[in-house]
Amino acid sequence: MVRTGDKQGPKRLIRSGTRVLVRDLPEKVRKTSLQSAFGDFGNVVRIELMPEQRTAYIEYEEPRDAEDAAKEMDGKMVEKAKVRAKLMDDRPRAAMDHAIRVQEACLAHLETRAAEHQQRIFGG
Fold first, then answer.
1. Integer Cα distance of 36 and 15 in angstroms
2. What integer pLDDT is reported at residue 9 of this predicted model?
3. 8 A C-beta contact, residue 16 and residue 90
4. What is residue 63's three-state secondary structure?
5. Backbone dihedral angles phi then psi of residue 122, each to the nearest 5 degrees
6. Alpha-carbon gap, residue 120 to 124, rounded angstroms
7. Measured distance CA(37)–CA(8) in Å, rounded
8. CA–CA distance from 120 to each of 61, 107, 110, 124 (Å)?
């Protein structure tokens, strides 16, 4: 589960696999149009609309409903616009392993030193 919050209310939990990202929406799309188009797949809990980005997040009560909606609505028309829909991966991200971070830092340092050395020997 993922915690989320916005200006309209307190933080709440989102079940993993219950959100669909919808892109390429018409500029003046309405939530009621999205509810009509996506509501047939299950109980829509919330619609977050970002009209300036022509994007929306549609949250379902059940992950299966979100999966069905994403699969069926991808490439379909909503208010005369062909939209892209995909299931969001809302799983919490694990922090990068410490050993990998150390290895990447060492590699970056070695590359920098090698470039400096090469420039001293061969010139710029």
1. 23
2. 59
3. yes
4. helix
5. -100, -10
6. 8
7. 25
8. 63, 20, 15, 8
CB-facing half-sphere around the CA of 16: CA atoms within 13 A: 6
Per-residue pLDDT reduced to its tens digit, 1-42: 444 555 555 666 778 889 999 999 998 999 999 999 999 999
What residue type is 60 in one-letter code? Y
Identify the bridge partners of residue 58 per DSSP, sorted by sequence position.
20, 47
Residue 68 burial (10 A CB sphere; 0-12, 13-18, 19+): middle
**Alpha-carbon gap, residue 11 to 111, rounded angstroms:** 44
Residues 57 and 47 sit within 8 Å (Cβ to Cβ): yes
pLDDT tens, residue by residue, 49-102: 998 999 999 999 999 999 999 999 999 999 999 999 999 976 665 656 667 777
CB hemisphere CA count around 113 (13 angstroms): 6
Strands 19-23 and 44-50 come out as unpaired
